[in-house]
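Data card: per-record layout.
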Amino acid sequence: MPSRQAGPIGRVRRAKRAGRARRAGRVDRLAPFVLVAPAVLVVVLLRLWPLVLGINFSFTGDGELNGTAVGLDNYLALLDDPLFRTSLRNVGLLVLLLPIAVAIPGLLATFIHLKVPGHRVYRGVYFFPAVLSPVIVGAIFTLLLSFDGPLNAALGGLGLPPVDWLGDPDVAIFAVVGVHVWATFGMALVVFLAGFSTLDPSLLDAAKVDGASFVQTLRHVIVPGLTRTIQFVFVTTMIGMLTSMFGLLYVMTGGGPEGSTYLPEYYIWMQQGRFDRPALASAASTALFVAMLVVGLAQVAVLRRTGKED
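The structure for this 310-residue chain is written out next.
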């Protein structure tokens, strides 16, 4: 008699175990989504939703037309504004200067990784400017680069004529970008040093044994081994140039001389704060977002193609 009941009872137990296993499998599959849900919610509420609202607001009017749909009028007004066109030209200049802004921390990180004399001290010294406020950095370099400042005094001591670093429309943007690179390359330096920790040291040893020069080692070992890191630094450095120079511009040049140092973020602030044209500022913000997206994707595509060719 007990043997007859064992069959049905065993089947019930096996069915229960199978049901628990299926539930456990579903929980395991859902667990990652549950864990990332808070972060995704924060991004959607604080990033994506304001972005959508800003894009929508860019198609409305300012002043008496506040809240009224105006189509592409704001974007056409941007194209007719010489200051906005200047800011776009300066974005193109930043793209051209970007390889230099990436190469500086990359080379310094290489020297530190290769343990040049004093590399421990250099690691801290190079990162120090990154912790300074852009306003403080701008105030310091405004004094250093003034027409009667220490830099021109040093040039005079060498018999060279003074340079109007912040007053010459052809020079000012290069001066501000140079200060920005100096103030921020410490963070890229840390990223490069982290990338070096993933580089196989045996490759460097093999290059040294084969008698490879520093340039050959850099080209054939270090750059291919740090392709992912270089891509990341290229994109983040470009984003920083487009979105983190407001403090320097405000303190050092105020967008001048003759609007030559305007960048989109400074133009957006001027339209929003000084001229009370929030809809036009939203259109400029949207244009800046599109420009950053296009430049970032283009950089990644070019770097990936270069890495495959190497």
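Known properties of this structure: Residues 1-5 have pLDDT under 50 and may be disordered. The chain has two domains: 2-57, 73-309.

See the next section for split statistics.
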